[in-house]
Amino acid sequence: MTVAILRFPGTNCEFDTQYAFEKIGHTTQLIWHEDELLPEGIDLVVVPGGFSYGDYLRSGSIARFAPIMKAVTTYANNGGQVLGICNGFQILTEAGLLPGALKRNNNLHFISKHQNLCVINNDNAFLNLCENGEVLNIPIAHADGNYYIDDEGFKEIEANGQILLRYSDENGSPVVVNGSVTSIAGVCNKTKNVFGLMPHPERALEAILGSEDGLRMLKGFDA
Amino acid sequence: MTATVNVFLKNGVLDPQGKAAHHALDSLGFDGVNDVRIGKQIIMDVDANDKSEAEAKVTEMCETLLANTVIEDYNIEIN
């Protein structure tokens, strides 16, 4: 599998993401935001974490107009797989490729810690190696991770199985971490080819560093 | 022309910054504050022949970039 990893000014998780996908045997290519085309023959585009454009105006709001995002939108609309992690999730919601929006954490703090997540729906390319109800331990690190969607939108994503992950305790019961609607940590689009989550699976690759649960998430794309 | 855009979280969307400031005002003993909302103000110098042209331009800017209408409302003043 070949994975294209985008870089914007202020992106800071591109090398961790590259390391993660290479560790599981994939080829990676870093793509500069000013490029207008994605390389031929890629299997996945990853929008990694960071602070693109300093989070000015709103997190992700400037990056979503970078030249490469036109190509990413076309790629996604043609069924191509896209994964947004943290700031990448914010960019994809700003771009309208994912439903809802990410706002400031309820407690106004930058939250950085290991967090349990409950798998809500594994019927997709991303989480198909995980079990529904399974609890994963994945680091989070964000100030704007408070997922908002209006009631109507919520009903729709719930009915379509677009809710992927919720913040939970070790038993899988939802917990309030940042104020997200029903503790949502990750969602996908209706056609289940665009995925976004605030937690960082690329930081959970080795048991000795606290968790290797991220491996199974990222391996899902090739399963 | 000068365009002043105010962007706020929509009614019904919890504003954590407003809530924190409200709590701080209460703690400081300022009575009778019923609600606090924090938004942002964007002031632009815009080329336009008249007010309505300026307003149309700025509305498009708001819808495209300056506000995220999933969570935010905006209002525009042209002077």
General shape of chain A: globular
Q: What characterizes the major β-sheet of chain A? A: 9 strands, mixed
Helix content of chain B: 25-40%
SS strand fraction of chain A: 25-35%
Mean pLDDT metric of chain B: 96
Q: Give the overall pLDDT of chain A as a whole number.
A: 97
Low-confidence stretches of chain B: none
CATH architecture of chain B: 2-Layer Sandwich
| CATH architecture type of chain A | 3-Layer(aba) Sandwich
CATH topology of chain B: Mth169, Chain: A
Give the strand order, joined by hyphens, for the main sheet of chain B. Answer: 2-1-3
Which series of helices and strands of chain B comes N to C? EHEHE
Q: Which structural class do the helices and strands of chain B define?
A: alpha+beta
Structural class of chain A: alpha/beta
Q: What is the name of the CATH class of chain A?
A: Alpha Beta
Number of strands of chain B: 3
Descriptive tags:
heterodimer; A: 223 residues; alpha/beta; Rossmann fold; 9-stranded mixed β-sheet; two-stranded antiparallel sheet; 5 helices; 20% helix; globular; B: 79 residues; alpha+beta; Mth169, Chain: A; 3-stranded antiparallel β-sheet; 2 helices; 3 strands; 27% strand; elongated
